[in-house]
# Entry
Amino acid sequence: MRNMIRFCPNCNKEIKYKTEIIYKTAKLKNSDCKSCSKIGRKISEETRKKMSISHHGRKHTIESKKKMSIVKKGINLGKKLSEETKRKISNSNIGKHHLSKEQIKHLTKIRTSKPVSKETREKMSKSQTGKIRSDEYKLKMSLICKITQPKGENSIHFGKKHSKETKRKISEKNKGRKLSKETKEKISNGNKGKIRTDEYKLKMSMIKTGKTHTTGSILKMRLSRIKEIESKYGQVIPNYNTTACQYFNKIMEETNIFIQHAENLGEYHIKEIGYWLDGYDKENNIVYEWDEKRHFDNKGNLKPHDIQREKEIINHLKCKFIRIKDQDMKNNLI
# Structure
């Protein structure tokens, strides 16, 4: 049986045929090889879906992966690029957007749908631990990120908002996470000497405008601030009104009750909610609050902060709450 061989008219590649009929047909049509016949060919979305479904769940063997790796590397197998070549390739790619926004979205969906195991995370962490990046490397990475991850309107995340579920997940993940002293120092040093432009300040102001902290957040901030002061200066001693102490002493003399205040064992501190009480009769569970002029607005109404404070104290102690106006009592003491 004679050899049924012909050459591709496009790339001059040798083509072997098993049957004479196929050989004669190809020769008559002057057809290209398989590789050349696919050039310029566009695959429909329907065909792509079918191909995707047919390959779904298929896993390559280690041998198969090695073969694919060798094919991809091709003529560069075992070769190392010179620094000059790397620089040329890098410069030629600057400013190029290889992936469209749709492609980036598609890849993001694929990656987020595949959870990374703890074992894999540990391996990734170990491989990066102890690596010291040079200033040149950091500069390169910064430039790459500016090109591949643009900010503002060009960002793929522009206009997007996290759902409540996503916010909850992020919150749970960060709970109990504490920054080391070294990390805090790095952040502090990184921000020292930074001069914010008026434009930046205006943007930050606009972002925060209208935002209010929850009661829980305010409580956390208050308690953390108290801890910070205690660690730096020792015991916290809040400011107090001497007239209020005189009034509480007068009540004790007249009614034969005991009121703890700033000049009588010090103000009672509710550690759980971070409040000090102007006066507290523990036996009868009565809280006395001394209201100076600053506790009221221009119309004479109690400020929202003081109303909230009163509610929190009542909810915690289940007590009776008595408010005393500074100006009214001053006249009685004179």
Q: What stands out?
A: The first helix runs from residue 20 to 29. Residues 11-41 form one domain. The CA atoms of residues 245 and 330 lie 12 Å apart.
